[in-house]
Amino acid sequence: MTSLGTIPALRDLPPDRLADLGRRARPARFAAGDTLRRPGDRVSDVVFLLTGTVVATHDTASGGEVWPARWTGPAIADKPAVLSGEPSPTGLRAITAATAGLLPAAGFLRLLHDEPQVRAHVLAALARDALTGRRELLHAVTLPAVARIASCLLDQDPYRRTAWPGTQDELARALGLSWVTVNRALSRLTRAAAIQLTPGGITITDRTRLAAFTAPGTR
């Protein structure tokens, strides 16, 4: 199993502390499509995601599904669900093959209590996630679909070759849009030479042109 030390929040732990954490975390492997947790379940373990991608899931009244959050390893997945102590309103599913270490929630809380650097990293990540969620909510209620998609692509890691390493359907679920809406918006961005659709996902070919679609008044 890949070392827990690859996870940014755990990277600065002393070697003996990291080794002890590795012994207490149960190794787990998930295939694409595996359910880690159903909506309404109380969270028993923190997921130290080593490789792969998992998403929070929510079923819509129309029978669709949206993904309010997404984590790609190395990362700690769905920290709020662990820390709240309440049943989670969203499920958790692997959308690629994934490996993880599962640590009981009580052990994670003890880690945060005992290790100030881990606690500071987790608190900063939670704050960033809260601000990102606020921005995404504002985008959802104020921006047209093409601007939301352009903004989402620009927010991805600029050093990653493929801005969105997934399908159009996955992007639609992440943004709460229909596949048809996403497909039309991506076609428009492609015609503008701002992006390119590839077998591996969506790449940005011109960040300036793509950013122009996020400007006020874009339709």
Quick tags:
four-stranded antiparallel beta sheet; 219 residues; 42% helix; globular; single chain; alpha+beta
Q: How would you briefly describe this protein structure?
A:
This protein is an alpha+beta fold and 219 residues long. It has helices spanning 15-24, 79-84, 105-114, 116-142, 145-155, 168-175, 179-191, 207-212, and strands spanning 26-30, 35-37, 45-51, 53-59, 65-72, 75-77, 91-94, 98-104, 195-198, 201-204.
Strands, helices and their partners?
Layout: H1 15-24, E1 26-30, E2 35-37, E3 45-51, E4 53-59, E5 65-72, E6 75-77, H2 79-84, E7 91-94, E8 98-104, H3 105-114, H4 116-142, H5 145-155, H6 168-175, H7 179-191, E9 195-198, E10 201-204, H8 207-212
Antiparallel strand pairs: 1-8, 2-7, 3-6, 3-8, 4-5, 4-7, 9-10
